[in-house]
Amino acid sequence: MLRARRELGQHFLVARWVARIFAGWACRFRRLLEVGVGQGFLTSTILRSCSVEIAGLELDLRLVGELASISFYFTGFMPVIADAVEPPLRLGGVDAVYGSIPYNITGPLLSLLVVEARKPALLLLQREVVDRLAAKPGTASYGRITVLVRLVYDVKPGPVVPPSAFRPRPKVYSRIVELVPRPDAPSPDMLRRVEELTKCMFSERNKRAAKVAAKCIGIELSKIEGLVGRDIRVYQLEPEKFIQLLDSQNG
Ligand SMILES: C[S@@+](CC[C@H](N)C(=O)[O-])C[C@H]1O[C@@H](n2cnc3c(N)ncnc32)[C@H](O)[C@@H]1O
Fold it and tell me: Where is the Ribosomal RNA adenine methylase transferase N-terminal domain positioned along the sequence (predicted)?
């Protein structure tokens, strides 16, 4: 058994019910990208369940042998030893993305999905991160990542996965989340602008939104108050309001 490397977030799944959920979802597509194949627990369950093509990214060179043996048994599997987020993943030709991903790349991966890829995705993330993605405006979990992801995706939280589903066991609970692309998602350029604006505004998340927005985008306070109201706080703004704020720069 391979010694797990903590810095690579190596907690390998052993719970079959989790793999079955991924297979049920993955079999709706033809070409998939897996982030962090590990020892191939999800990969081989999916490939046994249906005929799909999977490009599997894995960073740990020690796993080359395991990946090669999966591709020996399943011709639809193409392993790639590469960093999923550096350089950014190429997603041309892929219908959907999935993975039980190392928690330390969650932020960069979500940002890539939102700005560049916009593909359907099924991810196993830290439970608190899923709570944040699904949070309502005005709650403690609502933040930048909620706004960015929800402008592009409908977020569907799935089952909670306990530490006992992994070897070695992580200290935290995980949760499956499905991301369904929205047909009305703003353009990648607009998303980059929202990334900048939310970075500026959420640094003062409890302050009056109009005042913070006026400072961040350099527009008259009275004009912005008409758009967001006088007393509403940054963390109470609906995701769409950030687009409206940027649009107001042009008008
Ligand atoms: C949580 S484990 C999951 C492994 C496997 N999918 C499973 O379910 O058992 C995450 C995997 O991602 C790999 N990994 C870590 N950082 C990565 C990166 N930047 N790019 C690609 N893979 C990475 C780790 O080596 C590890 O095998």
Answer: 25-183
> Atom 18 (ligand 1): residue with closest C-alpha?
83
Q: Range of 130's domain?
A: 6-181
State the closest ligand 1 atom to the C-alpha of 99, by its place in the atom list counted from 1. Answer: 6
Residue identifier of the C-alpha nearest atom 2 of ligand 1: 10
Kindly state if the Cβ of 55 falls inside 6 Å of ligand 1: no
Question: What's the predicted TM-score (pTM) here?
Answer: 0.96
Q: ipTM of the predicted structure?
A: 0.99
Q: Which segments of the chain are extended strands (E)?
A: 12-13, 31-35, 53-58, 77-81, 96-100, 121-126, 153-161, 166-167, 174-181
pLDDT digits (tens, 9 = 90+) for 197-217: 999 999 999 999 999 999 999
- Domain-embedded: residue 64: yes
